[in-house]
Specification:
InterPro entries: Cry_DASH, Crypto/Photolyase_FAD-like_sf, Crypto/Photolyase_N_sf, Cryptochr/Photolyase_FAD-bd, Cryptochrome/DNA_photolyase_1, DNA_photolyase_N, Rossmann-like_a/b/a_fold. It is built from 18 helices and 6 strands. The chain has about 450 residues and is of the alpha/beta class. Strands 1, 2, 3, 4, 5 and 6 form a 6-stranded parallel β-sheet that branches.
Length: about 450
């Protein structure tokens, strides 16, 4: 019998707990290569984000997660091979070099990842490819509709999905196939960072965060506090570990149900599940609409009326707009790689409405910086706020002054993150490129 050689391509499933795909690999192959392709700035992302590399916060979180996964694999006689290559050439090279017979890969919501899988299938017809949804509450077979029939709004989706059974997490794998020796030229060496920060990536840190959260009473107060702007306690903070697959939503759901059994269920505990469903909806939304997720006119093919003002976009990115609450949120993002949900809504509304910019520039910049970047949730939410996505009510514009009064009435958040920008104006040149000069009172 010929040797069965497996390649597990890790994407946003960086864990060994509740990983059915990894369990499948244990049953199906004799030797295994565990591979991860480090994310890079694509030409599309570079054009819209106008940055040349991922933010430091996002890079640190990813590297934490990879080191943690490598340690977990080491304890099972395996290791994680990290390459600085885009997926298709990395996978094809490994398949050719070591004679891979089985490929295991998460059913990723990203179109680039799915395209790489399709190319690999065409070029290697002998290859047995196994894909499973490892980062969702439900499998595609569980859904009471086909992907083409996916409800056009979240509310319609929720009403049909929230009664579905969420399967229990599968046990952590206890053994793995023998390690396959492979030394690619573009091997990336990882090193730990001890920089002080609120979020450390990795399965171990994610599980500990969840345990601490559900050991407190915060879940019972979540609905009242979730719109806070700063701190670790106002919201669950599960998203960074969910986005990178250090935690599965099924694991969080199981912990939530255990908490409700011990402490009682209320509107707040339901709201945690409600937001897991939002994340679920955007996953299937991305699977359904594919490249339409990145189209200017969105899934509605209805292009907004915008122009591009390079100076305005730079002001927004750097937190130098005339809107202190927006500046504070952007400074927080640039320093930490994280921003509250309320903050994301406010800065997105500002970019689309006050600054009149193409929403894709904001979505791309978020992609480059956020430690909890998730292709479906990020681009789906930006479409939603720009009025080209799943919201039937059209664009959502927030009154920034009113929002400041509601969520930062004493300007504490604004002052902590240095949101006041004296003399800030939207434009430094007029319509014919003449400099706009102001006097000491801010008058043009």
């Amino acid at each position: 019998m010929s040797k069965r050689i497996g390649l597990y391509w890790f994407t946003n499933d960086l864990r060994v707990h509740d990983n059915l795909l990894l369990s499948n690999a244990v049953q199906e192959v004799d030797e295994l290569l565990c591979l991860y392709c480090y994310p890079s700035i694509t030409p599309f992302l570079s054009h819209y984000s106008q940055v040349s590399q991922l933010g430091q916060g996002r890079q640190r979180f990813i590297k934490d997660a990879l080191l943690c996964l490598d340690n977990s694999l080491n304890s099972l006689g395996q290791r994680l091979t990290v390459v600085n290559l885009s997926p298709w050439p990395a996978l094809q090279h490994a398949i050719e070099q070591i004679g891979v017979t089985h490929l295991f890969v998460n059913a990723n919501a990203g179109v680039d990842e799915q395209r790489a899988v399709e190319i690999i299938k065409r070029q290697n017809p002998h290859l047995i490819v196994t894909q499973k949804e490892t980062c969702t509450l439900f499998t595609q077979e569980q859904l009471p509709f086909t992907l083409r029939e996916l409800p056009k709004t979240f509310t319609q989706f929720r009403k049909r999905a929230e009664c579905l059974t969420v399967c229990s997490p599968v046990d952590k794998v206890q053994v793995l196939p023998r390690m396959m020796t492979y030394e690619p030229e573009a091997l990336l060496c990882l090193s730990a960072s001890n920089k002080h920060r609120s979020f450390f990536g990795g399965e171990r840190a994610g599980l500990e965060h969840c345990r601490q959260y559900f050991a407190s009473t915060l879940a019972s107060e979540y609905k009242q506090t979730r719109n806070g702007l700063d701190g670790m306690d106002y919201s669950t903070k599960f998203s960074p570990w969910l986005a990178n697959g250090c935690l599965s939503p099924k694991t969080i759901y199981a912990m939530l149900k255990h908490y409700e059994a011990a402490n009682g269920a209320n509107d707040s505990t339901y709201w945690i599940y409600f937001e897991l469903l939002w994340r679920e909806y955007f996953y299937w939304y991305a699977r359904r609409y594919k490249r339409q997720l990145f189209r200017f006119g969105g899934i509605q093919n209805k292009a907004p009326l915008t122009s591009f003002y390079a100076h305005r976009f730079q002001q927004w990115k750097k937190g130098e707009t005339p809107f202190p609450i927006v500046n504070a949120c952007m400074h927080q993002l640039n320093e930490t790689g994280y921003m509250s949900n309320r903050g994301r809504q406010l800065v997105a509304s500002c970019l689309v409405h006050e600054l009149g910019l193409d929403w894709r520039y904001g979505a791309a910049y978020f992609e480059s910086q956020l430690i909890d970047y998730d292709v479906a949730s990020n681009w789906g939410n930006w479409q939603y706020l720009a009025g080209v996505g799943a919201d039937p009510r059209g664009t959502r514009q927030f009154n920034l002054e009113k929002q400041t009064q509601m969520y930062d009435p004493y300007m504490e958040f604004i002052d902590r993150w240095k949101g006041r920008c004296a003399g800030a104006h939207l434009d430094s040149v007029d319509m014919v490129d003449w400099p706009i000069v102001t006097d000491s009172n801010g008058n043009t």
